[in-house]
Structures are given as structure tokens and as C-alpha cells.
Amino acid sequence: MAQAPSPQAPGIKGWIEYRLPIFSFIDHSLGSKYPTPRNLNYWWNFGSIAGICLLMQILTGLFLAMHYTAQSGLAFDSVESIMRNVNYGWLLRYAHAVGASMFFVVVYIHIVRGLYFGSYKSPRELLWWFGLVIFLLMMATAFMGYVLPWGQMSFWGATVITNLFSAIPGVGQSIVHLLWGGFSVDNPTLNRFYALHFLLPFVIVGVVIFHIWALHQHGSNNPLGIDVKTPQDTIPFHPYYTVKDCVGFGVFFIVFSWFVFFAPNSLGDPDNYIPANPMVTPPHIVPEWYFLPFYAILRSMPDIGIPFTSIVFVSSKLAGVIGMFGSILIFFFLPWIDRSNVRSATFRPVFKIMFWVFLLNGFVLGYVGSQPPAGSMLIIGRIALAYYFLHFAILYYISGREKTLPLPESISKAVLESHDHHH
Amino acid sequence: MANSYGRLMKKISLFIATSLISLAAASAAYSEGDQKAPRKLSWSFEGIFGTVDKQAAQRGFQVYKEVCSACHSLNRIAFRNLTEIGFSEEEVKALAASYQVTDGPNDNGDMFQRPGKPSDYFVPPYANAKAASAIHHGAVPPDLSLIIKARHDAPNYIHSLLTGYSPAPADVQLGEGQYYNPYFPSGKLNMPPPLSEGSVTYTDGTPATVDQMASDVVNFLQWAAEPEMEARKQMGLKVLIFLAVFTGFMIVAKRNIWKRIH
């Protein structure tokens, strides 16, 4: 900052740049002056795709907000009016609803990529934290957004999830009344959820700025998980990764469009096309698919007390809430739970198996979450829940001892060797 | 050491895989319960090229008007919308005029009745849910505008429901005004069998079998639930073609640019 600004270049661009160095800022952020590891594979596309998803949600959401009515007697009708009477209203709403699911798919892949290649490890712990905060904010935003159409699942989902807070000893019930704005989920709940649903995406944008800021400090991790050592290890972000991102955008939008135009309701529950009715409880209250693993954890927790007695220290409800939040919060500690100095699973044979088992276990939890919690489903849910947390304990133990494979000398050397193999 | 961890992990993954399989089997047995799965039929509106069969939808409208509308409202459809399934504007005008619609208040502050106009919405059979439930032993016949989107596998479900009434098995106790239908979640339905051979007389000469009327009304209700469906799918095809070309160009561009550093 102390150095004198470079002299003004000719033209309008030069005039602006001399006063506000925005062009060089962009060039250093996403352009030819941003050195990026030359070996990033397509799993590294999902960060920029997630950014596109956020932008799409904000834009479609803005136009939906122009037609939506946040009043419990009118909300459902106003959504149907958007579908039927607003020009391309169906496109806006389907893009927004499918967009939420797509955003979660993309962010889950983005997170899982980080897990596999060790992107959470030093010096990217804060980058990882900001990402987790974004994920938590997304969950809150999506949950409140799902309430807005005021269908049966909106209403009963809101009732179930807000009721969770009543498990907190002492202040629980007061928190629930505060969330509801009354003594049940009703019009005040809808109004505050709408206000928060509009606000939170912009908070996410703020955290995304920090996420990208922290990213630029040390640059992207890479599939080998080794540090950039020489300029030969990097290539400029533009044009190499801008064009690679464009390929990803194309493929992503094909999938997105297929759902929007040909299967817009396949990711949602039909019950949400029934207007909210506080007098009729749906037989199965199920959240959207992206919450299912956490919903399974919530419902699988047993009472915690002394076995074979009626002494209970923590009710299953409170344990479920702690388990559900804990299942995400534990990821904040991952950079210290995983003690290995090697980042990429490519060079960690044991970790690699643990990774896939953990992922599979996540799918099992998701499936359990979609089913009524009874019989074998409850038992499987409990085993999967136990393994979910056990994974981190095993990881702590193993990561300090595991034998890793030899790391390549440098990114550029590894890339050149792999080319020699191909030719 | 690493090897023994590996074996442990393999055991765990095997265990999880086995649980996954048993879980799938268990859920298949569980989720069905007593409710009979609907029979799978093929519908013209299915698939990415699927369209509304307008003849069937028009016949289905006749079934709705002459049978279903006695109990079920269709609140989200205006008479004018019927031109989308091939009725002419004159037909719609005449149809709307055959209904009496409450309007007002007039300059004296009174509500009044007048013949319907194409811009009016379908007139519901009951003043409110309480009135409906008083007549139907506590059940409220649902509005049908969104029924195709509000039930799992709705086209098949509704067709099976309308054609699937059967005598109650010995172990099923029906309440007053209830009918047995194995396709309904509880098996006990407050709706009497609505269709019987010849319930309507089709103007196009199609024989009005129960099966025919049920599938026609499904076609009509499919349109009512998703009036945008054809426009949506047509736009979708154009968008997909554009995106395929865009992605193709980007793949070529990416290959050319990356050649420089290979």
C-alpha cells in the first residue's frame, strides 16, 4: 500500500484504474495474476458452481419476493398464483426450489472433496471454518424457505424443527415461543421466517467473501495435497481455470435444467401441495432430502442414563438435538482431529478406506432419515449414528500412526510424469 | 500396522454394506403397509415429450363437471383456462353463463347473483369446509386443482382409487358412510364409489366405462395441476439443446487452451 500508484494508463480503463484499481483487483482475484496449482481436477469446479448457485437463488428469490405474500391465509395461494398467473412464474419458482437442492448437492460435493484431499488442514483451517459457517447458514436459510409456501410439510416441518429447541433445559420453551412469536407455528412465525429467509443469503455472501479471502491467502489445495513450491507448479487462473469452470457450468446447468423443466417436483414432497392444516398431522413428517442424514441422527439418539434402570440423565430428545448439532460442529475440530501431515487421501491408504466408509455411512443415515423410525430402521440408524462419531475417534487414533505413501517431489514433476505415462 | 487397520476398515465397510442391503429389504416390507400399490398405466403426459391429450382432458372435464364437482371444488381454475384444453371461447362463455356467481357489493351494498363470465373461477360446491364436513361424516372432499401434485404417483393412484372399490374383507370394520378401497391409505374412504358404467354420456361417442372415465378425469386433473406443463417441456428442450452446444464449445475451448501447457 505504501508504494506510489503506477502512472495513469491511457483510456477510460486507465482513468478508472488510476482512481480505483478494480481491474487489477479482479485480475489478481480470478484472472491472469492469480497463480493456481496446475493439477486441479474437475472436483475443484464445485466452489465456483456453488457461487453461481448462490447468485441464482438470490436473483430468483428476489423476483419471487415481488409476488409472494407472507400471510398464513394467503401464502399458499400466492405461491400458486405465481405458478399460474405470473409470467414465467413457474420457471422462477421451480428454478428457486430445484436451485436449493442443486445448491446442496454442489456444496456437499465441495465439502466431500475437501475431506478427501485434506483441504481442511493447515494452513486452511479458517477457510474450512468459513465454509462450515456457510453450510450452517445455508441449512437455516433452506429450512425457513421451505416454510414459506405454507403447505403441510412447511407447517409440520417448522413445528418439528422449532420444537427441538424446547429440549434445551430451562430456557428451551422460552426460545421456542420466541421463534414462533406465539404459542404455536402461526402467522408471526411465517413473517419472521420470511424476513430471515430474505436476510440470510446476504449474510452468506458476506461469509463467502471471507471464505474466498482466506482461500487467496494460500491458494487452492490440489489433488496431490502438497504445497506449491515453484512458479512451475502453477498456472494463471485465467484463462486455464476460467475455461475449465465454464465446462463445469455447462454440465451443471444441464443437470439443473433437466430437473427444472422435466422433473421439478421430484425432489420435493407431494404433501407440500396440500395447504397447511394445523388440525391434520401428515403420517410421515420428512424434511427435504438434504437434511435427511441429520434428521436420522436426531431421531436415532436413545435416552442416555443407567441401563436397566429408569434413571435418565439426558432425554433422547435432548440427546438427539446435541447429536444433530454435534454432527456438524465436530467438523470444526477436524483440522486437529486428523493429525496427519499428509493432506491427500491418495497417499493415505487407511484414511482413504475410512473416507469411503464414512461417506457410505452418511448415505445409510440419509436413507434411515427418510423412513419411519421403527423396527430395524431404528437399529440401523443407531449403528450408523454410532459409527458417524466413532469415525472421528478412529481418525484421531489412526492419523497419528498411519503409514503414508511417498509424496511426489513437486506438483510440476508429478504432472510431467503423468504426461509421460500417457504418451 | 497399516495393514491391520486396512483389514479392520474392510470389515467395517463390509458390515455397513450388509446393513445397507438388509435395510433396503426391510424398508420394502415396511413402507407398503396395508395400502395396495397403484396399478401402473401409461399416460400421454409422461416423459420429456409428453403432452396433454386434449380429447381425453375434455372428456375428463365432463366427468368432473357432471360427477366430481358435486362434492369437489376446483378453486384454482377459471372458466377461461379451459380454452387451453381445446374448448372454444364461445363454449367457455356458454359454460360460464350456466353458473350463478356471487358478486358485489353493488351500489346499495348488497351481494347479488349473476351469470358467470369466463374470467370467473369454478364455483365450489360448499360454502366452506365445515359445511362440507357436516355432510360427509367429518371428511372434507379435497380441492382437486392440485391433486395430481399432492399425491405420490398421483395419476396411477387416482385411477386405481376411482376404479378400485371392492367389498370390505371380513377384518375391516367400516364406520358410517365409509367404503372400502384398498388403494386408500387407511382402506376406509368416505367417498362413495363415484363412477359407474354410463355415469356420463360422452359427446364424442366414446363408451363411458368406469376405466375410461377414470383415466379421462386423470388427464383433466393433470392439466389442472400443471397448466404450464407443455410450455415448460418445450422450453426445456430448447434450453437443453442450447446448453449441450454451449458445453461442447467450452470443452473444445478448454482443450485448445490447455494444449499450451501440455
Q: How would a textbook summarize the main sheet of chain A?
A: 2 strands, antiparallel
CATH names the topology of the domain at 46-77 and 122-227 in chain B as Cytochrome Bc1 Complex, Chain D, domain 2
Structural class of chain B: mainly alpha
> Could you name the CATH topology of the largest domain in chain A?
Cytochrome Bc1 Complex, Chain C
Sheet with most strands: strand arrangement of chain B: 1-2
Q: Tell me the series of helices and strands of chain A, N- to C-terminal.
A: HHEHHHHHHHEHHEEHHHHH
N- to C-terminal separation of chain B? 40 Å
Number of helices of chain A: 16
**Average of pLDDT of chain A:** 95
Give the total of beta strands of chain A: 4
The level 1 CATH classification of the domain at 46-77 and 122-227 in chain B is Mainly Alpha
Distance between the termini of chain A: 47 Å
The pLDDT mean of chain B sits at 90
pLDDT below 50 for ≥5 consecutive residues: which ranges of chain A?
none
Please name the two chains that share the biggest interface, counting residues whose Cβ lies under 8 Å from a Cβ on the partner chain.
A-B, 58 and 51 residues
Query: What share of residues of chain B is helical?
Result: 40-55%
Structural class of chain A: mainly alpha
Helical fraction of chain A equals: 55-70%
Could you tell me the strand content of chain A as a percent range? under 5%
At CATH level 2, the architecture of the domain at 46-77 and 122-227 in chain B is: Orthogonal Bundle
Strand tally of chain B is 4
